[in-house]
Amino acid sequence: VESIGPYLEPLRKSIRVRCGVHAAFRVFTERIGDWWPLAGGYSVFGADAETCRIEPAPGGAILEIARDGRQSVWGRVIDWEPPHRVSFSWHPGRTEDTAQTVELRFTGDGAETQVELEHRDWQKLGDQAAPMREGYSAGWDAVLAIYAGAAQEE
C-alpha cells in the first residue's frame, strides 16, 4: 500500500559550474563515484561504502557499492538526454515504493553551465515527507557544492 502524505512543493536547487555543458553532464553522471560524498551520511553503507555509479541509460540503476561487493540501488534512470537532462527515481536506503523523482537540467553558457536540480514527489514519504525534504534541502546544497568543485577541475 503506497503511503501518500500531503503535497509538498518540489525542492529546487541551482548552481553554476565552471565548465562546458558536456563536461558538466559527464562529471555528474559518469564520474559521480569520484566526487559523491559517501562519508558523512551520504551513503547507505556508511564507512563500508566504496563508490557509487549511474548506469547511463533509461532503466539503468544508480548504485552504491560497498567494499565487500554488496550493492544498494538508490534509484533508476528515467530520462537520459546527454548533455542536457537526466532524471531518476531516488530512494537510497528505502524501498522503491517510497521513491521520489530527481531531475537535473544542464544549460551551457560558453565556459560555464547552469545546473538546475528538482527533487519532487515528497508525498510518497507520508509522515516523513516534511522532515526529509528539509534534510535534503541542506544535503543537496552540500552535494552540489562538492560536485561544482569536481566539475571545475574537469
Features:
154 residues; alpha+beta; 7-stranded antiparallel beta sheet; 24% helix; globular
Topology of this protein?
Elements: E1 11-17, H1 21-29, H2 32-35, E2 49-54, E3 61-66, E4 71-81, E5 85-90, E6 100-109, E7 112-120, H3 129-152
Written description of the protein model:
The structure is a single chain. The protein contains three helices and seven strands. It has about 150 residues and is of the alpha+beta class.
Structural shape: globular
Mean pLDDT: 95
Note the quaternary state here.
single chain
**Using only CA atoms, what is the Rg?**
15 Å
Q: What is the strand arrangement across the widest sheet?
A: 1-7-6-5-4-3-2
Number of helical elements: 3
Our measurement of the CA-to-CA distance between the termini, rounded to an integer number of angstroms, reads: 45 Å
Major sheet, described briefly? 7 strands, antiparallel
Helix content: 10-25%
Order of H and E elements: EHHEEEEEEH
In short:
The protein is of the alpha+beta class and 154 residues long. It has helices spanning 21-29, 32-35, 129-152, and strands at residues 11-17, 49-54, 61-66, 71-81, 85-90, 100-109, 112-120.
